[in-house]
Amino acid sequence: MTLSASQNRAGLALMAPAAMLAVIFLLLPLLAIFVLAFTDYQLGDRTLHFIGFDNFRELADEPIFWTSLGNTLLYSAVVVPGSVTLGLVSALLIDARTSLRSFYRTVFFLPVMASLLAMAVVWEFMLHPSFGIVNTALKAIGLAPHNWLKDGDIALYVLAVIGIWQSFGFNMVLFMAGLSAIPRDLYDAAEIDGAPNAWARFSLITWPLLAPVTVFVSITAMIRSFQVFDTVHALTQGGPSKSTEVLLYTIYAEGFEFFRSGRAAAITVVFIALVVAVSLMRFVSFKKNGKPA
């Protein structure tokens, strides 16, 4: 069916407000970041000078940048498999039970809806070296307490555990959506064909049919893990000795503590490139599975 000129104009008129908002709040800020990345601008200055790729060359020789990039990748390497696995297990357990299903879904999804900054304060009290519930429990079973957030060897892993706790509920909901799309007739057929137990039905039916969902959930979890900032800012401020400093916190420190806006913009460009690269993985995975990206 061919649309008339008036219908085309009406469609463009309806799209115009959303397009204008996208330009103002998305495209223009991105353009400003890319421009600032090639300048020596400092917050509050009235002038700026274009310095080419100097900011990026300085980053290449900056140990703190490589430390924050490594910490971000390590955090993601712990959070992604942990949150995806826990989300899948939770979805399978809830899907297998008919009673209290809504209750469990609500409880597991609560950390996603809660303010992570507020929850970080709760975790700070729980991990307190003197009166925190974690150390109190360790003392009760005869183990020595630990200063979890001040030990550079484990502080990042502690933040990763908090990240898993906060994000697995979101992954659970995505997996439950995938499970609901699997025809129940397949399980009945597998049982008739002699599938001996639940594990056999999972490996033969559930896991293969959940593969596209698993790829989507994994890539989404990876992008979300790159965006960690709240817990770092609230609990460790990048310490001790930069052991928990991640890319977003480095951007914040460069831009709003040292006022080096040009360098902060350069790190932001690297961060955007990292997220875009992971997003392209999602696009490619959808193409391979014959689904629109």
From TrEMBL:
Where is the major localization of this protein? membrane
Q: What is this protein called?
A: Sugar ABC transporter permease
Entry's transmembrane regions: 12-38, 73-94, 106-126, 154-177, 198-223, 264-284
- What Pfam families is this protein classified in? BPD_transp_1
User: How does it sit in the bilayer?
Assistant: Multi-pass membrane protein
Q: Which UniProt keywords apply?
A: Cell membrane, Membrane, Transmembrane, Transmembrane helix, Transport
The positions making up the signal sequence are none
Residue ranges annotated for the ABC transmembrane type-1 domain, each copy included: 69-282
Q: Which family does it belong to?
A: Belongs to the binding-protein-dependent transport system permease family.
> Entry's PANTHER family?
ABC TRANSPORTER PERMEASE PROTEIN, INNER MEMBRANE ABC TRANSPORTER PERMEASE PROTEIN YCJO
Instruction: Output the InterPro entries linked to this UniProt entry.
Output: ABC_transporter_permease, MetI-like, MetI-like_sf
Taxonomically, which superkingdom?
A: Bacteria
Q: Which PROSITE patterns match?
A: ABC_TM1
Localization per Swiss-Prot or TrEMBL: Cell membrane
